[in-house]
Amino acid sequence: MPIRLPSADPSSSKLPAPMATQLTSIIHQHRRGARGTTTSLHLARMLDGFLIKAHRAHLDKAGPPLAIIAVGGYGRKELSFGSDTDVMVLVKRVSTDRIPILQFLHALLDAGLQLGHSVRTINQCIELAEEDFTSRVSLLESRFICGNRPLAQTFERALRNFIAATDPHNFLDQLTNSIRARHEKYGTSTTLLEPSIKNSAGGLRDLHAVLWLMRGLGKVALHTVRRSDGTALQELLRSRALRQWVDPKLLPPAARAFDVLLRTRHEMHLRAQGLHDALEFSSQRSIAEALGYRRRGERTSVELFMQDYYVAARAIDRLTQRVFHRAQDSLLPARKLAAGSVVEQSFILRDGALYPRTARWKPTSADVLRAAIACTTHGATFSASLEDQMGRHLESLKPLNGEEHGNLFRSFLNGPRGVAHVLKRLNAVGALGRLIPEWQPMVAFLQHNIYHYYTADEHTLKVIANAEGLSSAQTSFGDVFRNVPRRDTLYLACLLHDIAKPKRIGSHEVLGVRIAARILKRLQVEDIQDDVLFLIRHHLLMEQTAFRRNLGDPQTITDFAAYFRNVHQLDYLYVLTYADLGAVNKNVWSDWKGMLLYELYRKTRNVLERGLTHEEVHGMMEREYEDARRRIVRVLQKEYFADDASRHLEAVESPAYLSVFTPEEIAEHIQRIRPAMPVSLIAKRRTNVTELTIIGRDAPYVLSNCCGVLTANDANILDAHIFTRKDGIIIDKFTVVDFSSKSTLTADQCRSIESELEAVQSGRTDIEHLLRRHRIRWKRRTAHHNPNVRIDVEFEDHPRFTIIDVYAPDMFGFLYRITRTMSDLGLNIAFAKIATRTDGIVDSFYVTDRSGRPVNDPLRRERIRERLLTTIRELMQHRVQVEQ
To answer: What is the 3-state secondary structure (H, E, C) of 321-387?
Structure first.
């Protein structure tokens, strides 16, 4: 069993004093900024020295010749502080006396060095390589440390003969399949939020695969006996063979990437005091600061660090792909390379990939756009050779400028299929940043929070892919996408909507308009410029309105409709909003959000198509309300007297009540309302949410108490609709999910919520008791909040209410505390919109004062703001104490 180098406190380990001193020195050098490869080499040399001394003491005079061979990461001289460390004792015969070998291994154990070890003959090594793929690639990394050099040389010759006799196609297939399986397990993207620095795409193991391929195909020499000053990968990346195999320009970035990842891995091992390769979100900031990253302008230390990581991962991923593509091409039979058809004079289309007609192809910016058009026209992708040619001549690509470039770029964006895929390949090869220089800062830029799962460039390309994927979607979004007048308008807005984020995250949509205007001016696309800039400026507007405002309020619809000059702008924004939300992270989109967006879209489109004025919108919605009320009365009078139904609807007043509840649900409300009515709960399970309707009597803090009971029963509130009849009957509807499963509540949870609501109303218990019980249960599962989360309180005017938007980290009991504070401040909450995201909360409240009027006094607003911020800070402080 491999045992790792001690790292936390070398002085307290069992290591011999000289070795402990060396290890302490290596750690100090790493802390002072030593390169990752330098640290690895120091660790390998330290261990080599100790093994050489142990060999002299126990094996030099052991009789039959043997050799000590480092394998795996130790063979590559790529040790980190917690690496697995494996050696092989190579013996000439199976019958070799094992006693001296055991004495040698016990000496290592006694010194505190526990290494994975094996004892094998050369024949056993070759047999193992034939049977086990993992052992085979490990032997390709073998390195002679000490002992009988002729035996090690014989071993190397045997390995060379084995490689020469091996089927290269089979070896390539096995290696390719192993990479695919590893990526499927650890992540296929180079921009994961929490990557495995070793095993994810673009990780160290991909470089190891390149080494195995080049050695396993006999393209570079084995280093079993040969002495070298660097690690195995340093030697490979400097080798003439690899420079001839792929574009030499790929090698320096890969060498820098190797060093970045190795240095990061050293720090991760030190912090974990052992083997640890998962770069968790919670540890990224502390690792960044330990590696010397500091805030620069608006960019935090962790954002700068993660950007360097993503750049490194992409460099490794690109080299790996190129090497394996080159290997596949080199092993293809000659007859397969002859097929193909000429496309656009400069290209050949073969097996679904586009190739340059000549190896001397030196592309201009227009040539790259023509290649992109050819791919979208024929449903093809760039071949590895075409991408290599682009990468080799990036300096010849000039920023898009002028009518020819503008027309070509628009033709590409209007292509029938594969626009997002081609843009992704252009970005991967570095061409997109050359064609649009303003794009380059987007590459590998990350907002360091759990909500934004992808880097800015990958997020943007996913937005375009989401929009393009609607071409066959049988949804309202698909219907609108298929009917937008100009796809180039939509795709340009998608491509540029976050273009300013690397410069400024806050109000990036405002600065983005100025940056995008420069790009569009160069492209000479005056006919669509206004629509593109409108979409960039307002790309957050639709989600903010749908998820924070009362869609049953005519004021919401008229205010939102006032932004648009025509229906087409609304159509574009509807699709862009869907595509943008789906590209933030895999957990953001939900059918519930789709329903809210569609409701806003449908109502607004009606206003725009009919050209309704502000007053007409109010009148229309009032008439719709009256029509709906009469229809519901007709339905209800089958079970109740018409007068009873009319009185109930007149008592509720709010038009939103009729859109939130069906006639059948309203009938159930009437049935449950009785003079001596206790609290009543109606629970309905939907696809992945539970809708809870609470019916009871109004009282001070009643909304706060409801929120407290829901929280105490692990119900995470997504949305709230609050209605109060004139006679003080409350009908409050909460859309919730279970805190842990993120799905519907159980029947037991619903029963507990109803009984505890009754207990709180009757005074048999109080909310604080319930929350203490809940806090104890979840104490160990409380997460640290991200310091980048916005904490703020904003006010917005409304004819009948004051709208208060509250921004805060997602915290235990937040909604209960905030609503209680509002009640303490003399505020009545008429409507609430709850938006809990993975990186924080944005909750909106429609409030009045005790007399039912909006809060317009600036001084009182400031007092409310300070009290709410104080409540948030107290909650955050309490959470820190609980965690401690």
So the answer is: HHHHHHHHHHHCCHHHHHCCEEECCCEEEECCEEEECCCCCCCCHHHHHHHHHHHHHHCCEECHHHH
The answer to whether residue 350 scores a pLDDT higher than 50 is yes
Tracing tokens 């308009």 back to the chain, one arrives at: 513
DSSP assignments along 560-600, one per residue: HHTT-SSHHHHHHHHHHHHHHHHTT-TTT--HHHHHHHHHH
CA-CA-CA-CA dihedral for 615, 616, 620, 622, to nearest 10: 20
Spatial contact of 275 and 269, defined as CB atoms under 8 Å apart: yes
Query: What distance in Å separates the CA atoms of residue 210 and residue 141, rounded to the nearest whole number?
Result: 12
Answer yes or no: are the C-beta atoms of 20 and 29 closer than 8 Å.
no
pTM across the whole model? 0.82
> 729-738 and 802-808: which strand pairing?
unpaired
Q: How far apart are CA 283 and CA 276, in angstroms?
A: 12
pLDDT in tens, 585-616: 666 677 778 888 999 999 999 999 999 888 88
CA distance 81 to 42: 11
**Under a CB-based contact definition with an 8 Å cutoff, are residues 104 and 59 in contact?**
yes
In which residue are the tokens 């916005």 written?
790
Q: CA-to-CA distance for 30 and 24, rounded, in angstroms?
A: 10
> At a CB cut-off of 8 Å and minimum separation 6, what does 342 contact?
348, 349, 357
pLDDT digits (tens, 9 = 90+) for 129-139: 999 999 999 99
SS3 string, 93-110, reads CCCCCCHHHHHHHHHHHH
Residue-wise pLDDT tens digits, 819-848: 999 999 999 888 888 776 655 788 899 999
Spatial contact of 485 and 407, defined as CB atoms under 8 Å apart: no
- Residue 580, pLDDT > 50, answer yes
Closest CA to 713 of 750, 760, 670: 750
549 in helix, strand or coil? coil
Q: What is the layout of strands, in order, in the sheet containing 381-382?
A: 341-343, 347-350, 353-356, 381-382
Task: Kindly tell me the number of DSSP H helices and DSSP E strands found in the chain.
Answer: 38, 17
Region for residue 96 given its phi and psi (left: phi exceeds 0; alpha: psi -120 to 50; beta: otherwise): beta
Which DSSP state fits 751?
H
Rounded Cα distance between 521 and 408, Å, is 15
Question: What pLDDT does residue 793 have?
Answer: 93
CA-CA-CA-CA torsion sign (470, 474, 478, 483): positive
Interstrand relation of 680-685 and 690-697 (parallel, antiparallel or unpaired) = antiparallel
Residue 4, pLDDT > 50, answer no
Nearest to 628 by CA among 638, 636, 640: 636
DSSP class per residue in 510-530: HHHHHHHHHHHHHHT-HHHHH
Name the token pair of 233. 């990968």
Give the dihedral sign, CA 810/811/816/819.
negative
Q: What values do phi and psi take at 42, rounded to 5? A: -60, -40
